[in-house]
Predict the 3D structure of the following.
Amino acid sequence: MQAHPVVSREEWLSARKEHLAKEKEFTRLRDQLSQSRRELPWVKIEKEYQFHSSQGEETLSDLFEGRSQLIVYHFMYGSEWEEGCPSCSFWADNFNGTSIHLNHRDITLIAVSRAKLETLEAYRQRMGWNFKWVSSFGSDFNADFHVSFTPEEMEKGEMFYNFRVGQFPSDEAPGISVFYKNEQGETFHTYSCYSRGLDMMNGAYHFMDLAPKGRDEDSLPYTMAWLRRRDQYED
């Protein structure tokens, strides 16, 4: 940062306009990619998944709450964990206040985890979140959408995650899955993403991308080594 070039306002404006052209091209490409995403084929959901919620037992169809589109954030929270994943907690901090706007565009946003409902509710209250969070404890949902792994898969290092077989450092993984329900009540899986595919859902990271130091993680022992749960920062 010490050797960063400093120029006149006129030179800065010229450089900024040159970069603006690149940003506009990126925006056009992103719009094209989003359209391509919406055109992907769907898979009909045949299994009757059950979830534990504060409203009682609910099916996947129930989770739509009368809307036709459902976005599920797969929050890493194992059935024996004492706390939720710090990284998923960082992402979830971006969800508060979002649901009402999504609801008015025919979209329901929820989080799903394998931990028991009472554990999730206690952590949600601690973190001050207001989005709906349900438990898939006892269900195949997490395994079927490739965000929970068996001890055998962990031992062999053969977990199917992010559309490939390989190793993963935990038996729980983050992801997003999207569903659509038609007028006949049929439900379809339309999209899933994992790993860096979740990046666009974290507004805090994109604010960092605007700042001179960016995410400033290159010198850390691992990505997000700086991260703490929102109530665990020292200042």
